[in-house]
Amino acid sequence: MRAAISDYVPKASNDIKETARPPPKVQWCWKETDFCMDNHDEDDIFGSASDCWIKYGNSDQVEKAYQKQKGRGTFSPLTGYVLDFSTMVQTKQATGFEREVKRFVEKADDVDVDMKNVEVGQGLPQDLAGEPQMILVQGDIIQISKQREDGWAFGSKLHHENEALARKLLAVAVAVVGEGSSEDDAAILTDTGWFPLDKTQPPTGEELAVLQKQVGDTGELTPPKHWDPVVDPTTVQLHELREGDPERDAVVKSFLSTLVPPQFTKVKIVRVQRVQNLAMWQSYVVKRQTICYREHFDSSLGPGSAAYEKALERFERKWLWHGSNAEVMDKILQQGFNRSFCGKNATAYGKGVYFARDASYSAYRIYAVPDNKGIQYMMACRVVVGEYCKGHMDALTPDLRDASRNMLYDTTVGLLGSDNMSSPSIYVTYHDAQAYPEYLIAFKSSS
C-alpha cells in the first residue's frame, strides 16, 4: 500500500502548459416534434421538455467528428441519417425529412488547473507501451498488485483524495494528446494503472486513519474464510473445485440457468476455479464499503449490521457475467477489470467494462472467444453497481448525479427487450475496483 506524495500526470504529450483549462462538456441534440415528446424518457431530454431537444446517445462520437472536420462536412450519427455540420441539419436519407441539430456547450470551468506544481511523467518503459497509466493526486492511497525492479508499479486506488481534481487533470492530459483522441486512446485513468513508485511513499498513520474512517471496519480486508491459504497477496491463485463440491455446484447452477436451447446446446463444463487475488479483493471490498457507507452517511454501520446488509443487497450483484478470450482473461485475473483491455468490444452504453445479468449473453463466441481447443472462458463476478443511470454511446463517465457534491453515478446500464431499470440486462462499470472475478469457468458449447 502506498500514498501519493505529489500530483502526477502521466506523459501523454509534450504540450502540457503551466496552466491549463479542462475542455467544456458538449452535448449534441436533435429537435423533436413537440407532440412526439411523450415518446422519450426523461433522461433523453436535454433541458426543458417544452424546448423539444433530444440528446444524441453517441454525442461524444459526434463531437469527435465535428472537431476532426473543423465544423464542416457531414457525419452519420445513426444508420440512414446524415448530419451536416455546416447547416446543422440532420436528414433522413430515405425520405429527405430534415431536423434541426444543436451543439450545446456547458460553461467552461472558470478556474484553470495550475500545472506548475503537477509533476509530468517521462513515459512508460518500452515493454509497457500501451498499458494504462494512472493519475495521482497528493494523498491518494494505492493498493499495489504488481511491482517492478525498475521503479514502476501497477495498482488501484483505495482512497481518492480529490476525485474532482483527478478528473480535471485527466481532461487536461487527454485534451493535448492529439486531435480526435480520447481517454481511451491515451490509456490514462484516474483510478488504476502504472505509476512511478518514487511519486509515492508508505502511508502515514494519519492517512491510514482517513482510509479507515472511509471504509469502516477493515476486518473484511482479510481473505474470505473459504479461501485456501494465501501464498502471495500480489499474485493470483486458482483453486480448482471438484465435482460434487457445493461451492462448485452453486456456480454451475447459476451459470447454466440461462444457457438453454435453441441458442445453446451441449454445454459441457470443463472446470471451475475459485479466483484468489488478495490485493484485488481488498480493492473491491474498499470500493464496496465506500459506496455502502456513502449512501448511509455513517461508517459505524459495519459489516454484519442490518443496515449494511440491506445496502449490500441494494448495491452489490452476485453474480454478473463477463466472457473474454484466454489472453485477456489472464490479464484480468492478475490486474483486474482494466478498461484498456476489457472495454474494447462494446461502447453502446459507455466506454467501461461490460457485465451481463444473464450468462447466456456473455457466453456467445463473440465475447467468450474459444481457444485453439474450443474452450471458452467465463467469469462469475461480484460487482458493486451502486447508483446507476442509463448508458450512452461512447460516454467516458456516467452522468452527473449530484451537482452539489460533484458526484457521478457509479454505473451505467443497458436495457434490452422487456427490461426495466430495476433489472437491466447490461451493467457498465468505470472504476476497475467495482468488480471482483470470483470464479473462472472453462466450458465448451454449441451456440
From TrEMBL:
One of its GO terms (molecular function) is transcription corepressor activity. This is Poly [ADP-ribose] polymerase. The keyword Magnesium does not apply. It comes from Amphora coffeiformis. Gene3D superfamilies: 3.30.720.50, 3.90.228.10. The keyword Ribonucleoprotein does not apply. Keywords: Glycosyltransferase, NAD, Nucleus, Transferase. GO terms for biological process: negative regulation of gene expression. Residues 14-103 form the WWE domain. GO terms for cellular component: cytoplasm; nucleus. PROSITE patterns: PARP_CATALYTIC (PS51059), WWE (PS50918). It is found in: Nucleus. Its EC number is 2.4.2.-. Residues 223-447 form the PARP catalytic domain. InterPro entries: Mono-ARTD/PARP, Poly(ADP-ribose)pol_cat_dom, WWE_dom, WWE_dom_sf.
